[in-house]
Amino acid sequence: MQLLSQITIPTGKKEAVIQLLLGDLSAIPKEHAVDILVVSAFPNNYIALKGSLFLALQNRGLSVQALAANKQMDLIAHLGCWLSAPLSTEQKNKFNFKKILCFEPQYHSTEPQTIVGNIFRCINTFAFDEDNDEIAMPVLATGYQKVPIEKMLTPLLENAIFWLQNGLPLKCIKLVLYRQEQANAALPIFTAIKQKTEKTVLTELHQHPPAFKYHVSDAGNSGDSPEKAGVPNTATEITPELSPESPVVSPSNYDLFISYSHRQTEAVHEFVKAIQEKKNSLNIFYDRNSIPAGGMWIRKISDAIQHSKSVLCILTPEYSKSDVCWDEFQCAKVMELRTKKSIIKTINFIKDADMPPMFALYSYIDCTEADVQKLKSSVNQFI
Prior knowledge:
By secondary structure, the protein is α/β, with parallel strands linked by helices. It has 2 domains: about 1-205, Leucine Aminopeptidase, subunit E, domain 1, CATH 3.40.220.10; about 215-380, Rossmann fold (3-Layer(aba) Sandwich), CATH 3.40.50.10140. Helices cover about 35% and strands about 20% of the residues. The chain has 15 helices and 15 strands. It has helices at about 55-60, 65-70, 75-80, 90-95, 110-125, 150-165, 180-200, 200-205, 265-280, 285-290, 295-305, 315-320, 325-340, 355-360, 370-375; strands at about 1-10, 15-20, 35-40, 70-75, 80-85, 100-105, 135, 170-175, 215, 235-240, 255-260, 285, 310-315, 345-350, 365. Helix 6 (about 150-165) packs parallel to helix 7 (about 180-200). The protein is globular and about 65 Å long. The N and C termini lie far apart (about 55 Å).
C-alpha cells in the first residue's frame, strides 16, 4: 500500500491525519492496520459483483453477507448503516482490520454532499468508542454508483477536516484508491486541499464548515430539514449553501441550545415560553428566533453549540430519524469529549422503542407521552 500524501490536523494536544493511499483494501498490510473498514452497499444487497471490494474480500475468505447476518449494531433504520461483530482473531490477523462499517443508505442519491453527510453521521456514531480510532475506506460512491471521484473527494475531505478539527476522536482516516487512474485524478485535489488547510488558521476553518444536504423522505419519516432555520422545504433535497466569502458572524454565548425535531415545534415553543416566564434573562438558541434564515445556518448551529453551556435534546422517534438532529447531537457529543464537560441533557418526550444507543446512554427527564405540562414543569431543572 503506497502513501501518496497526508493532511495533518492539529486537534489540541494530539494530531490526526488524513491519508491518501494507493492499494488494495482487501489486503491491508500490517503497517496500515485499522480498527474499522468502511464499505458501502445497496440496501440489503451484499452480492460480490465483479471488480467490487466485496468480491475481493470474498475471494480471500471474508463474506460481507455473512457479517451482515451477525451485526454488532444495526442503525439501518436511523442512519442507513450497521457495524459488524468483531472479526475472529484469525481474520483480524489476515485482513488487518477488526470490524466492518457498512453504509447502505435507504434512499438513492448521487449528490456528493448528501452522500458524505450520511457517511460521516455513520462514522461519527462509532468513532466515539476509543477502540475505533483508525478507519480505512475507499472514496465511497465512485464505484457502481458512478459518482466521479473529482466530485466526491472534495466534500469527503472537507467533512473529515471539519469533524477532526471540532474534536472527533479519530487518529487516522485512510482514503484508499485501487487504480492508478483514480490516484492521478485524486492527488491534485488532495494536494490543493492540503495546501489550503496548512495555510488556514484553525479558527477560520471552523468558521467555514462544509456544505451539507439533507434528504427529506417522501414518507416524511426522515425528520428535519432547514425549516428550523427559516429555509423553505421546497424539494426532496435541501442545500444550505455556504459561501466562503460570507462574513463570519461572531457567535453569542448561550445558556441553552435546544435540539428537537420540527414536528415538536409547538411543544418546544411552550417550553421556551415557560422558561422565559421564570427567567427571561436566559439566552436560548432555538428555532427561527435564534437561527438566521439563509445559508449561514449550519455554521451558526456549529458555533452556537460550541458557545452553549448546555444542549437539551427533546427525544422522539422523529428525532432519531432526523439528519439535522443527529448532526446537532454529534456536534454536542464532540464538544463533551473535547472539553471533558457534561453538557448534553435529554428529555424523553415520546417513547422511542428503537432509540439509538448513543441517545439512550444519557439519563433523561420523562415527559412521555408528549405531555406538554410535564415538559413545562421540567423548566426548573434548566434554570
